[in-house]
User: Fold N-acetyltransferase domain-containing protein from Algoriphagus halophilus.
Amino acid sequence: MAEPYHKKYATIITDEMENSAKARGTGIAKRSPAYIETKMDEGKAVIALTQDGTWAGFCYIEAWGHGKYVANSGLIVAPEFRKYGLARMIKQEIFKLSRKKYPDSKIFGLTTGAAVMKINSGLGYIPVSYADLTDDNEFWKGCQSCVNYEILMSKNRQNCLCTAMLYDPEAKKNHVEELALRKDFKKEIKLFDRWVRLKKYVMLKINKSKASVFSIF
Assistant:
């Protein structure tokens, strides 16, 4: 768990969040170093460091709707430590921390990453519609800095390039199994990636088509 003395890494973390989003060509809800520092002070973050103190990864918790919903946000791994399974370990730790601090809360996430979708599925998340997420306006305000915010608002906050996933502690096991991703999705990352690319293609194509129509008038 991240502690207050880890605040010296806050700027490095936020810079990498932004750089990573730009490299992927995806949107991101920007967070300031001060915001990350607050999460560390509150004990609502997980940080990964090497033995010599080099920053390797990070993730934090946000609570919405008076604690009814919890989001594990800002998952980021330093470039030199990627493809070693560190993201999965961080997600597992932040998930456990979320369950400890908010045992009755639903845990959700919005992601454009196929790898994160696969990790979430392994933790018990299921893909859901945006209507199943928090209606807390403060959460959705966080999307304003995302490059895809216009698409989100054009869909009345009911869809966007991100895929919504939810873990419900009250869901019956059988119900979860019925709604969970197909078994082959759990085994094959390429299927997640194919889904993400397909959704991105469809959403962007629809948005461009609307822009073309409006440009006529």
